UniProtKB/TrEMBL annotation, chain A:
SUPFAM superfamilies: ATPase domain of HSP90 chaperone/DNA topoisomerase II/histidine kinase, HAMP domain-like, Homodimeric domain of signal transducing histidine kinase, PYP-like sensor domain (PAS domain)
Occurrences of domain Histidine kinase (ranges): 500-731
Designated name of the protein: histidine kinase
Alphabetical UniProt keywords: ATP-binding, Cell membrane, Kinase, Membrane, Nucleotide-binding, Phosphoprotein, Transferase, Transmembrane, Transmembrane helix, Two-component regulatory system
Length: 732, 197
């Protein structure tokens, strides 16, 4: 942050740079003026400006390169920058190029207009005129000098110097010298007595003189002094040369000088015409190039500054799109963009709050759902919900417990599909399906079917579900296994009947028996043999029937009274062994016992359990009619997280008819000729009072007997029957 | 992307457009074919009294462009750089004397003459022919360079001479071209020779 404060602002740097560029360009432009002191530095200025252009070009190039890379990476804001820069460049370039083109044209035409044939000719004519004027003067001086030689020819050698002085004064020459043929100075006279050494002609002059005998030429004696040098031959015995130097009048010299200067200047300009155009074009191009490049560079910087908040916005938007609401964009300026950024920040804050609220609501809903699911799962009643086309949506744990089918695994399928996999559930499921399809209101139905544990009775209650608009959106079926409840009701009813019977019937039986015996005792002696025989038989019948009735009533009272009188730990294998010991002596019957290792203990009344075993074994013995095999097995099983001891008793008798299986445990249901039909009812009652269950095992068929049975209809020999008892095991 | 391409292309076109104007048309005429340039043919130091004097012969051959310029009245300035160096093995050579002669040659249209002026001495000589004018510049005789006192025995000395055309003295519009066009590359290389007592 401190570093940022020390740094000069970009705009200041740009201003300084622009100032520098303008100064350089101005200097170069000034240097183009020949007279300027800067002209000596022209080359350097040109070089510096060219270098400046190269540097600017590099800057612009670097910017373009970085922009191209950003574009390639599809960086935020790069496309907008490109568009703005291109627009700026086009806007800046177009007028600049047009101005440049016309300036160049104007420049070239302007320079060309300085030169034309008339001026060219006038210049040459002027020079020629000057030359002609001087030429005329030279010829005149030549003639004059030639005339003077005549006086020298006659002059004696001693007087030559004097004569020369006269001649010089006469002719107006500034210097007069007489040379011998070999070029030796013989006599000399000068207007300036201090000039001891006269001006000597060079070899070139001598060469020309020997060829032409006379020589006349303009001689610039000193740099800006013109003289007419005339040399003529003095025709004496030994040829001599007279050199006379005539000054050109100052006025004429000035004029000639002026003409020459103008001519030379014009010639020079004419020669430099192309170079001049080039140099001006170069300066102009450099000015244009530099200002354009600088403008483009500055455009890059300013556009980058303008785009910065947009870039931040784009990045912020991307962050929001990907679910990050915690990004706070910096507000750099208090302009429209700054306002936009502020609004964006406000928006993200709101979204963040809304999203947090939604998330909380979602968690709440999820908790609620989990709560409901837990409750549903722990309900004893099975609950299955359906959608509009009666496909299963949810099913709870109790549904499995009741149907013994994982209904959960059939979510998204109909009950009829379930039927295909579980044929034994055909009846209840079809009933429920039919009721679902038909019912428009809450319905209730009792459905009975044969489950794996015997006959089961369900109380089903269905509720169609409707949306707020009144459309049907599905249904819920709640069902309860009421088998035990109904059984309990039945048992209670039978118990009451038995108790009443015992009470109402047993009481008159003893007087009946006693009365019959009394009749027999009193009347036997008083009757004849025939009548006595009849009486004997009748009373015997009465007594026997009363005994039978007493037995029957005892059975009823047995059934009616509670069986679980005391509770102790019973070692089942031992108990079974004891009971079997009473039967093993019976010839023709084979017993087979099979026990799990370890303790097989149950809690219960040993007398009742013993009775259960007696009843079942007696039942089996009666079924096999004294010949055959009886198997008893004891196993430890686990059901619903509870340990049970399973007692299974199988015989290889004729088996039980299917239609009897459902009612076999109810009182007065028997297949046998004798018996009250209370044996199995009492067994069931005892087992249930001990918290266990008993059912007919329909799955088991004795090995080797299954093939014999099918053709003989329902009742066939040797299909065998089996009972399974499950009693809660003692856990130590 | 499209924008940056157009941007680059425009700049390139602009720069390419400038190039032919800078390098002038007659660059193709090479220096060697035309045979122009200045060569120091021979140069030597001789002892004259207690001074070393230089005698040198220089061959000036002007390019067509230079002759044209001269004929159009553009004065050409020539610098004859003369240096004596003390040669050192592990250091830069030490310059003992750095002197020179500067000539100006210019054409005078009125007189149809070439005027050579020694800028140092101020001598002016006129020649009706260019070759004669150049000849007058090419011969250097008895140019006093340094005293013998400067010369210490046991050291190695060298003398060098170079003739350059002063391009910065050309008329301004001609200068950029003179730096680019080989026709104006008239300067000689340094001629270096050991100096013995």
């Amino acid at each position: 942050m401190a570093f940022d404060k020390i740094k000069p602002p970009v705009s200041l740097s740009i201003l300084v740079l622009f100032g520098l560029i303008l100064l350089l360009l101005q200097l170069m432009s000034s240097a183009t003026q020949e007279s300027s002191e800067l002209s000596a530095m022209y080359s350097w200025l040109l070089l510096v400006n060219a270098l400046g252009s190269v540097v600017l070009l590099g800057l612009v190039g670097a910017n373009i390169y970085s922009l191209a890379r950003q574009l390639k990476k599809r960086e935020a804001g790069s496309r907008l920058t490109t568009r703005m820069v291109s627009l700026f460049v086009v806007l800046a370039l177009a007028p600049a190029v047009i101005v440049f083109y016309f300036s160049m044209q104007f420049l070239h035409q302007g320079i060309d207009s300085w030169f034309n044939v008339e001026i060219d000719r006038a210049m040459e004519d002027a020079l020629e005129l000057s030359q002609a004027s001087l030429d005329q003067r030279m010829r005149w001086h030549l003639r004059q000098t030639q005339q003077l030689t005549a006086r020298l020819v006659d002059a004696p050698e001693t007087l030559v110097t004097l004569e020369m002085e006269n001649l010089r004064q006469l002719s107006g020459a500034s210097e007069m010298t007489l040379f011998s043929r070999q070029g030796r100075i013989m006599a000399s006279s000068s207007i300036n007595p201090s000039d001891i050494l006269p001006s000597l002609p060079d070899e070139h002059v001598w060469l020309q003189l020997r060829r032409n005998t006379e020589f006349v030429a303009l001689a610039p004696v000193r740099e800006d002094e013109l003289m007419i040098r005339v040399i003529v031959t003095v025709k004496t015995r030994e040829p001599q040369y007279l050199q006379a130097l005539y000054p050109v009048p100052i006025r004429i010299a000035d004029l000639a000088d002026s003409v020459e200067f103008a001519f030379v200047r014009y010639q020079e300009m004419n020669f430099l015409r192309d170079s001049l155009k080039l140099s001006f074009s170069l300066t102009l191009s450099l000015v244009l190039l530099m200002s354009l490049l600088a403008a483009i560079w500055v455009a890059f910087i300013s556009i980058r500054n303008i785009i910065a908040p947009v870039k931040a916005l784009v990045k912020g938007t991307q962050a929001v799109a990907s679910g990050h609401y915690d990004r706070d964009l910096p507000v750099t300026a208090q302009d429209d963009l700054g306002f936009l950024v502020e609004s964006f920040n406000e928006m993200t804050h709101r979204i963040a709050r809304a999203s947090a609220a939604t998330r909380m609501a979602g968690i709440e809903v999820e908790n609620q759902r989990a709560y409901l699911e837990t409750i549903l799962a722990n309900l004893t009643a099975g609950v299955i919900s359906f959608d509009t086309v009666y496909k299963i949506r949810t099913a709870n744990q109790a549904a499995y417990r009741i149907f013994h089918v994982h209904v959960n695994q059939f979510v998204g399928r109909t009950l009829l599909e379930l039927v295909q996999s579980y044929a034994e559930l055909t009846e209840p499921l079809k009933s429920i399906q039919r009721l679902l399809e038909q019912a428009d209101d809450i319905w209730q139905q009792r459905i009975a079917f044969l489950g794996p544990n015997g006959r089961q009775e369900l109380l089903c209650r269905g509720t169609p579900l409707f949306s707020q608009e009144g459309h049907r959106v599905g249904a819920v079926v709640v069902f309860d296994d009421v088998t035990d409840l109904i059984q309990a009701q039945k048992n209670a009813a039978w118990g009451e009947v038995a108790r009443r019977l015992a009470h109402e019937i047993k009481n008159p039986l003893t007087p009946i028996q006693l009365s019959a015996e009394r009749l027999q005792h009193k009347l036997a002696d008083k009757l004849n043999d025939i009548d006595a025989g009849i009486l004997q038989r009748s009373t015997t019948t009465i007594v026997q029937q009363v005994e039978a009735m007493k037995e029957m009533v005892d059975d009823f009272s047995e059934y009616a009274k509670p069986s679980k009188k005391q509770t102790v730990d019973i070692d089942l294998p031992r108990l079974v062994q004891e009971v079997l010991a009473l039967y093993v002596l019976k010839s023709g019957v084979k017993f087979k016992a099979d026990y799990d290792t370890g303790l097989l203990m149950v809690k219960g009344d040993p007398v009742s359990i013993r009775q259960v075993l007696h009843n079942l074994i007696k039942n089996a013995l009666e079924a096999i009619d004294g010949k055959g095999l009886i198997e008893i097995s004891l196993h430890r099983v686990q059901k619903n997280n509870t340990d049970f001891i399973e007692i299974a008793i199988y015989d290889d008798g004729p088996g039980i008819k299917d239609e009897q299986i459902e009612q076999i445990f109810e009182p007065y249901v028997t297949t046998k000729a004798r018996g009250t039909g209370l044996g199995l009812a009492i067994v069931k009652k005892i087992i249930e009072e001990h918290g266990g269950a008993i059912w007919v095992d329909t799955s088991r068929r004795l090995p080797g007997t299954a093939e014999v049975s099918p053709s003989v209809g329902n009742r066939c020999d040797k299909v065998g029957a089996g009972f399974i008892i499950q009693l809660p095991a003692c856990n130590f | 992307m499209h924008a940056s391409v157009s941007n680059k292309t425009l700049l390139c076109c602009f720069l390419i457009g400038l190039l032919p104007t800078i390098s002038h048309a007659d660059t193709s005429v090479s220096k060697s074919v035309e045979g122009f340039g200045v060569v120091v043919k021979n140069a030597e130091f001789t002892l004259q009294g207690d001074s070393y004097v230089l005698s040198a012969d220089i061959d000036y051959r002007l390019s067509t462009r230079a002759k044209e310029a001269l004929k159009s009245g553009v004065p050409l300035y020539w610098d004859i750089h003369i240096k004596t160096l003390q040669q050192r093995d592990y250091f830069w050579n030490k310059t003992l004397v750095n002197t020179g002669i500067r000539y100006r040659i210019q054409y005078h249209a009125l007189l149809n003459m070439y005027r050579v002026r020694n800028e140092g001495a101020g001598d002016v000589t006129n020649f009706s022919k260019l070759s004669a004018a150049l000849d007058s510049m090419s011969t250097i005789r008895a140019f006093r360079v340094m005293d013998t006192a400067t010369y210490a025995s046991g050291e190695r000395y060298a003398a060098s001479i170079k003739v350059t055309l002063d391009r910065d003295a050309l008329p301004l519009p001609l200068r950029p071209i003179a730096y680019v066009n080989p026709q104006w590359y008239l300067s000689s290389d340094w001629t270096l020779w050991p100096l013995t007592k």
